[in-house]
């Protein structure tokens, strides 16, 4: 009994790499959310590096090496 939910369907099996070359549409709604989160976290990291530079006087590489 792999799954008790009758509404659930697995994706069809395909050869390795085939999903990159087929005409199947991408789930762009999920990609948009993930990329937006990734961009916001990157901006927070950049801002944290700038604040750390102002506090310590060392740049991002200097903070890692210190």
Please tell me about this protein's structure.
Helix content is 53%, strand content 0%. With 66 residues, the chain is mostly helical. It has a domain at 26-65.
**So what's the overall shape?**
elongated
Rg from Cα: 22 Å
Secondary structure class reads: mainly alpha
Assembly type of the chains comes to single chain
Strand content: under 5%
By DSSP, the count of extended strands is 0
- Pick out the low-confidence regions: none
What profile does the largest beta sheet have?
A: none
H/E element sequence:
HH
Helix residue percentage: 40-55%
Mean pLDDT: 83
Total helical elements: 2
Report how far apart the termini are: 56 Å
Could you write a compact summary of the structure shown?
The chain has 66 residues and is mainly α.
List keywords for this structure.
elongated, 66 residues, single chain, 0% strand
List the helices and strands and how they pair.
Elements: H1 28-56, H2 60-65
